Amino acid sequence: MNSYDEEAAQRWGETDAYRESKAKTSKYTQADFQAAKADQEAATELFVYAYGNSLPINTPQAQDAVQAHRAAITKWFYECSIEMQKQLAVMYIEDARFKEYYDGRVRGLAQYVHDAIMAQE
Q1: Which of 4, 15, 89, 92 could form a Cys-Cys staple with 117, CB 3.0–4.6 A?
Q2: pTM as predicted
């Protein structure tokens, strides 16, 4: 178990989402993990497009990115409700690793992703 796995087990090990994710990913091949990453990257690129074109967070394009993000998590890891996605969005700006992932693509993207996710109803 690597340090990320240990951290996840400590933080979320008692949750249904964690158990569902472990059950799903335990059966994945390397190709499955690559496909999951491709889906996640595709959702991120939708955010990059919306942010790069200065689209407001409530536009259809930005909200399509939000839906693609949630769909990728649900497909590959666990049932991601809007509320769960909003909790993730907070991590994206508060946890330096997540912030770096998004802001490494485009400076300011982490805040945009957070705000777009929070804007959904």
Answers
A1: 89
A2: 0.87
